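Recall the central idea of this unit: under ordinary conditions, the amino acid sequence of a chain determines the structure it adopts. In this exercise we apply that idea directly, starting from the sequence alone.
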Amino acid sequence: MSQATTKQRKWVFPVVAGTVLLALTLIALFREPVVLDSDTAEGTVQAFLQAIAGEDFEAARGYLSTGLREECTATDIASAGPHESFTATLGRVEDLGDEALVFVSLRLGIDSSLDPYTFDPGPYRLSQESGRWGITEVAWPYFFFECDR
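Accordingly, the structure predicted from this sequence is:
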């Protein structure tokens, strides 16, 4: 094999690897989030958090259990924020029959000048009510202190 052929082959691998890495990065950055089935516990939590992110607090209230909806208004939920952008990542889901625990990891401050802050607020607890999942304990945002209890 000639020296010219060897030099040509040395640059091929880095170029191909770089192109693949760039393509994978672009796919990860621009893909749409997965939309979960709202008939599942995890889909209910996702819809609740999307409503919170969109500041549609009345829609968010609709994902609460009957008991929480009777105690908490959309204004109660809005009073707790969030006051900054966030993303949520689904963790594990524990199916307990007519109840479920949905764990999420939250990242706050995505659009702020401060460093984003990631935390696990604990599980959202849900129960089946008339064929739908209702959130009985909200891990975040913390609006319970505003509700009539």
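The longest helix spans residues 3-30.
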